[in-house]
Amino acid sequence: MSASGTSTSQLRARRRAWHLGWSRRWIQACDSPSSPMPGEAFPLQQASRGIDCDQPTSTPRSMMRPEPQPQLETRTFQADARSGELDEAIKLFHRATGIGFYEQLPDAPNWKNYLDLTYAQKMRFCLVFDPHAEPHSRHATEPVHTYGAFPGLLNAGGSEPVPAHKITSVTVAPSYRRRGVLGRQITADLAYAQQEGFPLSALTASEATIYGRYGFEPATFQCRFTLKCAGGLKLRVQLPGKVVDADPARLEADYSALAVRAFERTFGSVDSTEYDNGYALGRWDNWETLDKPKNLRFAAYYDDAGQLGGFATYKFGGWDEPKAKLVVHKLIATSDAARIKLFEYLGNHDLVEEVHGQGPVADPLRQVLDNVRDYHVRSIDDSLWLRVLDVAAAFQVRGYQHDARLLLRVNDRMDLISGTYLFDVADARATVTRIDEGQSDPDLPLVALSEREVAGLYLGTVQLDQLLDSGRAELVGGAGAGNWRRAFSVAREGFTPHGF
């Protein structure tokens, strides 16, 4: 009996009834015959397409002590048509995600912004409940696992952007880790994304060791750097255009158009969301609370024709720091010149000794500094991770630098893209055909590799010769020499200015 006089069985009955009130918005998460019907539990002891990705791989199953597995219930929602019921589910989703990432929870007035942003993203999200949680547990009414995804675009260097299934807000409560919760969810979601026709899935990873198990591989990296500018930032070149102190309230429409152009001209970028645009324009300080920011400053770059070509949002770091600094919160640009001019502007503020920013690993900014030692690398971090869901659809819309013909034999542990593919690359485009191996030309190079290596090739993060030399791929047939080794090379490294 609880302190209020309600029995444990009554509390559980109420909790279960509360969960089942959302059942008509429940969407089947996987199409296998073993999938439960709405209101039934997902038995975690069932295998997830042959992979138990949340179990430590170093310990054989036969040596592990059996642990009772809870019967969990999954609810999947689509943020499309607004309703009070869906609003409450979205709030619960974001509240649980915030707790999972150790974040401060938002104040009540900011929930409207979360709702608006979630509907704008057309978020598909999952909440996993434990109907047998103890009555005094937070999980008696809140989910043990959150998982979200929404449609987006990727600039892969082709004539058109590539549709991408963007995964976000993945959390598992500490007491439910290592029980296959994420393994089952992400396996079902990748199958769903493939069925929906997405060539790729994308994410930004908070833990780098998790997502390789599901076929993801780092596709872009970013450099966090410090610019020393105590005496002003001096460049070796004079670049066109000008930078002005901007008023974001007068630039909303122009900024939206700029964000689209910057995406189209930034290889490796994903499209910006309403949150990204609002963050750049000073509507909110961060995703954690969506509070109104304080002390933000804004700068806009205009080219010689008067067109907006770049925008920076930045903040003064405060006088209590050892060195007075400006911190860049968001910077987008349609060209290297626009980006460099913005940093030149930031590096020539009175009393400022440092500027903290982000950029590609091979940053063009460093190449034009009068003193290259003014550019100090603080860290190099993975940014965008990709998972290929359709080899032909993904690689046929990618850009290419060299003509080549070759075969890739893909061994996918999740069996989403396993098979042999013929690549015929000419005039910066590829025709990719899945074939029976007996149909292949024996003179063509045949490279065997896994789904992770395929993802690494997509934006040219790694090259075939690197994979072959390191043992991550194997040449199993055809000629060893030739231009085919450069088939996936790129003109410049990818850069992803927007997280998600």
Ordered list of secondary-structure elements with their pairings:
Elements: H1 8-20, E1 42-43, E2 71-78, H2 84-100, H3 111-121, E3 124-129, E4 145-154, E5 162-172, H4 181-195, E6 200-203, E7 217-218, E8 221-228, E9 242-245, H5 252-264, H6 274-280, E10 296-302, E11 308-316, E12 325-333, H7 336-346, E13 354-359, H8 364-367, E14 375-382, E15 385-388, H9 391-395, E16 404-411, E17 419-426, E18 429-435, E19 446-450, H10 451-458, H11 464-470, E20 473-477
Parallel strand pairs: 5-6, 12-13, 16-19
Antiparallel strand pairs: 1-2, 2-3, 3-4, 4-5, 6-15, 7-15, 8-13, 8-14, 9-10, 10-11, 11-12, 16-17, 17-18, 19-20
Characteristics of this structure?
20 strands; disordered N terminus; 500 residues; 3 domains; 8-stranded mixed beta sheet; 7-stranded mixed beta sheet; 11 helices; Aminopeptidase; alpha+beta; Nonspecific Lipid-transfer Protein, Chain A; single chain
Descriptive notes:
The protein has about 500 residues and is α+β, with helices and mostly antiparallel strands. The chain folds into three domains: about 75-215, Gcn5-related N-acetyltransferase (GNAT) (Aminopeptidase); about 220-380, Aminopeptidase; about 390-485, SCP2 sterol-binding domain (Nonspecific Lipid-transfer Protein, Chain A, 2-Layer Sandwich). It is built from eleven helices and 20 strands. It has helices at about 10-20, 85-100, 110-120, 180-195, 250-265, 275-280, 335-345, 365, 390-395, 450-460, 465-470, and strands spanning about 40-45, 70-80, 125-130, 145-155, 160-170, 200-205, 215-220, 220-230, 240-245, 295-300, 310-315, 325-335, 355-360, 375-380, 385-390, 405-410, 420-425, 430-435, 445-450, 475. It has an eight-stranded mixed beta sheet, sandwiched between helices. Strands 9-10-11-12-13-8-14 form a seven-stranded mixed beta sheet, sandwiched between helices. Helix 2 (about 85-100) crosses helix 3. Residues about 1-65 have low confidence and may be disordered.
